[in-house]
Amino acid sequence: MSAKRVLLKLSGESLCDNLSSISEVCLLRTANEIKSAISCSEVQLAIVVGGGNIWRGAGKFIERVIADNMGMLATVINSLALNGALTKIGIKSSIFSVNGLSDFVENFDREKVINYIEQGNVIIFAGGTGKPFCTTDTTAALRAMEIKADILLKATQVDGVYSMDPRKDEKAVKFDSLTFKEALDRHLEIMDSEVFSLCMYTNISIIVFDFYKDGNLRKVLNGEKIGTIVEAG
Questions:
Q1: Could you give the CA distance from residue 82 to residue 85 in angstroms, rounded to a whole number?
Q2: What is the pTM of this model?
Q3: 102 C-beta neighbours (distance < 10 Å), count
Q4: % of the chain beyond a pLDDT of 70
Q5: Domain 5-231: which topology?
Q6: Among the listed residues 84, 68, 91, the one whose alpha carbon sits nearest the alpha carbon of residue 22
Q7: What residue segments make up the domains of the chain, in order of their start?
Q8: Closest Cα to residue 71, out of 128, 10, 6, 137?
């Protein structure tokens, strides 16, 4: 991987354990993985973090628009937590949101975001797209496009993209690389199909990797072949 600007998509689960929605241990582990990775590279890093650790399941009994609004607010809570953890370990970071939450985070301003990231700040995007019916994966693709990222990193609990869920089927086959068309044609569920389409349109490669193995983020940013790369054919 040769990339100057990277968008990292984290799940809300990267901040939690089985006992609490935001775990100090998990939060600091995530922050330290980010610090280790950017300290060993010259990559400019932006992050989108999900909110599933706080709100997942709400949509089963609450009307979808309300549930999605809850999810967007959950990403703000997670972003504040991650920002606090990064600050605690000496990493400058800034949070931007499109939701008009200026008492808590900065309002999204593309020029300001790019200025901050060029100064070496880690950027955290909160609040999703600001609209319901969009996932944080889609948010990640849109923000990657807006900041002209070279790579979108999808942090997961598996070591790449498989033909089926490897945790459920031992015959699952891992792909080292895929084209966007192959990912769309195979209906692979590791990310929304909209993400593959958006990144294909703007030629932003996607790397899906196991974030929960210590050091993997650093290895990916240093160009080691970790996980699965999805790119133009």
A1: 5
A2: 0.94
A3: 9
A4: 97
A5: Carbamate kinase (3.40.1160)
A6: 84
A7: 5-231
A8: 128
